[in-house]
Sequence to fold (425 residues):
Amino acid sequence: MTVRTGLIIINILAFVVIFGIVGYRVLSVRRNPEAKSPQNLRPFMTDEELEGRKLERVLLWALWCSVIVAAALPVYWLWEPTREKDMVAQFDTQAAKRGATLFANESMKAYDSTKSLRCANCHGTDGSGGSTSYVIKPPDSGSNLPLTVTWRAPALNTVLSRFSPDQVNQIITYGRPGTPMPAWGVPGGGPKNEQSVADLVAYLQTIQLSPAKARAADDQALQEMIDTAVGGNGKKGNVATAQENLATAQQTLAKDEALAAKFPDNKGYQTNVQVDHEEITNAQAAVKNSQDYATQINQLVSTWKSGDPTKAGPAQQAWGALLFQTNCARCHTKGWSYFDPTKGAVPLPAPQGSGAFGPNLTGGDTTRQFPGDPGISQQYDWVATGVDANKQYGTRGISSGRMPHFGTVLTKDQIDAIIAYERSL
Ligand code: HEC
Ligand code: HEC
Fold:
């Protein structure tokens, strides 16, 4: 039995007793209707009686009550901080539980079809990141045909080592315009009130990786990116995938051409052949894009491994370029989040670092924002810790509180490498 049910039972008992007494009195008055003389006409106790044992008894009661109050107050005072702390913890646990339900998708235990927002569909059930399909209008393609791409959604089990809880609250409330991340809070045009957004942040707090694990996850992301680009560690590699797709497309074309030759009057078969030719053009482009990207990654990896990447030089810049792709490009390079060289129809990303959600860093941007040698350590501070929203950074920067900070997820050497790369852009 909890304290709560105990109190409820005591209250019910008190009600029953009070109603019982009142009811009894009312009924007993009706049963004895004979008149009594009014109280002010009846004789009362004498002064001796009033000032004797009776007074002493009243005073003794008063003393007892004072003793109880005097003893209870310090106990209350001693217990109050613990009670407050327990209450806060209890509120947090309940908020996190509600947040878990909001976050869940069908495959999770916390799922509730009337409440869940299915964040897990895009960000992964463990919050380790995922992807979602998204319709874009290919930039600069001259065509207005919409194109469905696969947009990578970042890990949320490290998000609080990159952003403060307030910043995460802000992101969830307002979403990320131009990306699959919708606004969830009422101020951003979404469906949920402040409480729900706070509950989601409380839930995210419970799934955060330790700093060591967050760093390991970041290293693993880099390794996976390399393996996907060039193949290795159980990954086929983009080039092999693109070549397989091309082979399949060629087989399909051969089949459809045979059908079209057999039934020359069938319009459907002729159209299939046309579509197959387009597929092959895309698949050929995909092979080339995958090869180009693999070459680029191979070069970066061999330069990185050829020297000491913790000292200024080409090895450091190459390491920085690779780390930039896994940590920074999704905001600073347009088209990076859906870049997939194995899909010929998906446009290639804009030049690395040329700006998207975050500003354009090319053309010597960071050497102007953080000039000279002192600028390097200023730039380090900005990337590692940042400043609060509306505070100045660099020469003419003013923080909007939207840039994540990497002092926990990346080591000093890694950040130094990224900075060296950025300053070369
Ligand atoms: C339809 C897919 C989708 C759903 C559903 C979704 N997100 Fe996202 N979310 C994304 C994508 C994609 C991004 C990255 C956008 C970008 O490229 O800048 C993102 C970014 C974020 C970020 C910023 C992370 C960072 O490191 O930049 C947070 C926090 C976040 N989402 C929380 C949530 C929460 C909480 C929910 C559920 C209420 C949710 N998301 C539901 C797709 C989704
Ligand atoms: C979630 C998106 C996001 C990611 C990821 C991100 N940035 Fe940024 N970055 C921004 C935004 C937005 C700004 C603009 C400043 C602001 O709004 O506070 C910015 C500004 C900067 C600036 C200052 C540029 C200037 O001229 O003022 C630098 C340098 C920078 N980012 C480097 C990085 C590096 C290095 C990484 C990766 C380790 C990174 N950013 C990852 C969003 C991002």
The pocket of heme C (ligand 2) is lined by residues 327-328, 330-332, 357-359, 361, 365-366, 369, 379, 382-383, 394, 397, 399-400, 402-404, 406, 418, 422 (CB under 6 Å).
